[in-house]
Amino acid sequence: MTAPDDVLAELRALRAGDLPTHGGRTLAYVYDSAVPGLDDLAARAHALASSVNGLDPTAFPSLLRLENDVVATAARLLGGTAATVGTVTSGGTESCLLAVLAARESRPGVAAPSMVLPETAHAAFHKAAHYFGVRVVAVPVDPKTFRADPDAMAAAITDDTVLVVVSAPSYAHGVVDPVEPIAAAARERGARCHVDACIGGWILPHADVEPFDFSVPGVTSISVDLHKYAYCPKGTSVLLHADAALRRAQYFASADWPGYTMLNSTTQSTRSGGPLAAAWAVLRHIGDDGYRDLARRALASARLIRDGVDGIAGLRVLGAPESTLIAVTATGEDFDVFTVADEMRARNWYVQPQFAHRSSPANLHLTVTAANAGNEDELLADLRDSVAAAVAAGPVAVAPEVVAAIGALDPDSLTPQEFAGLLAAAGLGGGGVLPERMATVNALLAAAPPALRERILVEFLGVLYS
């Protein structure tokens, strides 16, 4: 056996190569409250319930109490009523999957179910469509504001529509869709309306935005992640339904085998009580007043950063973000944002590159949290210096013949050997080791059509997990 201290030392050494999860320098993937002692509280609560199995709430009633408390807190925040019910899931994607599944299962007479969503909706809904055989009707958004078009969304609803989706806010641009008219259109046609508030659910109630929650007639379900702006550990989200009848189709039961009757509220069966207990403890510790303060700090920080970006020559913010997510793009062609991302990484910041999609140009995504409050000037100064360095380096150039060759490839007909060559050409070979600077890799990936880019990255994922 290996001594516990040696095991932990090895783990610490491995973690040293990760992006930082605290301090506000990783502007994607992580959410930092900067509240002292919060990690320790969550870890201790997790340890108390990590061996408990959420599969059977009658065997472990503590988890039933914790889940009901967490759901009630989320429902109270998001305009719920006494009829509102919910489920704690493993994350935002599972919450979105279950919302789609419940909508599909509630309309068994629809032979070819579809869901209407703005083209800016999270990819989790495309994943749900893929898993559950629901056809996606993606509706173009306003090309300048990136908000869903209520008239176009309403026109896309048919008798086969089981679900209409809106974002509060959308991940890519941080804008809130006009929920009221879209929910009204869904209600008129007898379709459910889901509000994806995975990111905004714990922030927007404290912001000056249009109504988006259960106070809006026609909203039937809302997803909100606890591991985002509720600042809980990873692995917790809530899916709320306006009433129990709407939730019932989400459940799965099977008695047609010789073992126990399987009864699941989520896609999982066995579920550790650890993440739920950690989330419950964090919610109890921070409380309503604490969350109000954290939300205001994050929103104020995001406003300062947005205003600061407007003062950096060569950059502009896409749309008019209303929450804490910001998309920043270049105003000209004398540099590219992928090089800016590399320069920011060299200055110990991580900003997330986003590829061009229809009216949305290539840009950099920033997730602002309470931990960024007070550090805006340093971030903006490094961003300004990164742009200057990118201008000096010039834009990454991909030869036209390479672009043409990439565009002519059929991802469905390429052999594993050919994909290995593509990975190597894109800088993604070598046993999954990434180059220190990613601008050239991202420029090549940007030149690939979406289907080919998906397949290349799937192949790369396979390399990583080998």
Summary of the model, kept short:
With 466 residues, this protein is of the alpha/beta class. 41% of the residues lie in helices and 13% in strands. The protein is globular.
Biggest sheet: strand arrangement: 1-7-6-5-4-2-3
The biggest beta sheet is recorded as: 7 strands, mixed
What are the segments in which pLDDT stays under 50 over at least 5 consecutive residues? none
Helix coverage percent: 40-55%
Tell me the series of helices and strands, N- to C-terminal.
Answer: HHHEHEHEHEHEEEHEEHEEHEEHHHHH
- CATH class call of the domain at 42-282: Alpha Beta
Outline type: globular
CATH architecture of the domain at 42-282, by name, is 3-Layer(aba) Sandwich
Secondary structure tally, helices: 15
What is the residue-mean pLDDT, rounded to a whole number?
95
- Tell me what portion of residues adopts beta-strand conformation: 5-15%
Structural class: alpha/beta
CATH topology heading of the domain at 42-282 = Aspartate Aminotransferase, domain 2
Distance between the termini: 26 Å
The total of beta strands comes to 13
